[in-house]
Every structure is written in structure tokens, then in C-alpha cells.
# Entry
Amino acid sequence: LVFANIIKPGTGVLFEGASKKVAVKELPGIYKTILDLLPSNPFAALTSGDMMPVIVFALLLGFAIILIGEKGKPAANLFHSMANAMFAIINMVIKVIPYGVFGLMSVAMARYGTAIFGPVFKFILTDYLTAICMTFGVYAILLVTVAKVNPLAFYRKVFQSWIVAFSTCASSAALPVSMDIAPKRLGVPKDISNFILPFGATANMDGTCYYFGII
# Structure
């Protein structure tokens, strides 16, 4: 918000057909927020893309599989295979993303002309300055004080996943790379990284927070 108010990336930007009035929805209370985390129908949450109920249901299902011990191994193996299949799908999507981005940029150029590059550059600059401050400021402090690791060494080891996220603009696309790097280069136990990284990719979207703060 500080960077957005200083740089003002939206100043002078006018899009045809854009609404001048925006209806702001009332925020739900604490009770309703907690209640909404428990899905009454997990399949409905899956089809509607409501992530938090899906995550809560996945956690409960995972705990249940652990509690039933040997009887739960077939289900655990099934979900493991499904996860690997999803990673394969993500890898296929990554290969076509550049063409999709090219098509979107072509449409934007045809509709708004070269005048769009000034406002877009200001938006990208604001977004990247925010991400840089968070990554090399806040996270660096946490790495030193909490994790007790050298930030520069950490950044070198995770750089590959950064490149994938940067080129695809999707943290989910970088998830398979991150899950491969965590146990091999960072020494994070695989059981921990396999849980934390997918959970963080859906529930800890710092980049999305910057984006909404800027727009």
C-alpha cells in the first residue's frame, strides 16, 4: 500500500467499458469465517474453486488416513499417484503458457495500443518493488533469526524455483520444482516439505496480497 500510494500506478489509466462504481461486499464475521472453513459439500467446494474448505477437508482426510494405519495405505498411495499426475499436468501447461501470454499481450496491444505500456510498467515496478522488499527484507530477517540460515545461501539454492515462478507468473507452476529442491538442496525432510509447500502455495499467497493491495 505504501508503494502503491507513492508510485500511483493507476493514475491516468482509462479502460473503455470500465465501471466507475464498485460495489464493496461486507466482510463476514469471525463466526461465519470459521464456519465457512468446514465444507458441507467438499465436492461442491472443489468445483467452485473455494480453496480453504478444500484444504480443511484435505487435512481432515489426511489425518483420518493416518489414524486408520495400514488400512489407509491404499488411499494414501492413490492420492500420491494423483498428486504426481497433477504435477505432470502442470508441467504440460507450463510448456504452453508462453504462447498464451503472447496471445493475451497481442489482444491487449490491438485493443489499447502502445499507450498501455506506461501504466503497465508502473504497475509492474510497484509490484516488483514490493516483492523485493518482502523477499530481501522481511524474509531475510526471518531466515536469520528463526531458521538460523544464511539468506544468500538460501536464495542461491531456491533460485531455480524463482525462475520458474517469474517466467510463468504462477507459484503453482513452481510448486513441483520447489518440492524437488526442498529435500535435495535445503535438507528439509520430504514428509514436511510435501505438506508445507502445497499448503503454502494455496494459503500463503503473498504475491497475490501485493497484487490486490496495488490494484
In short: The chain is about 75% helix and 0% strand. The two ends are 9 Å apart (CA to CA).
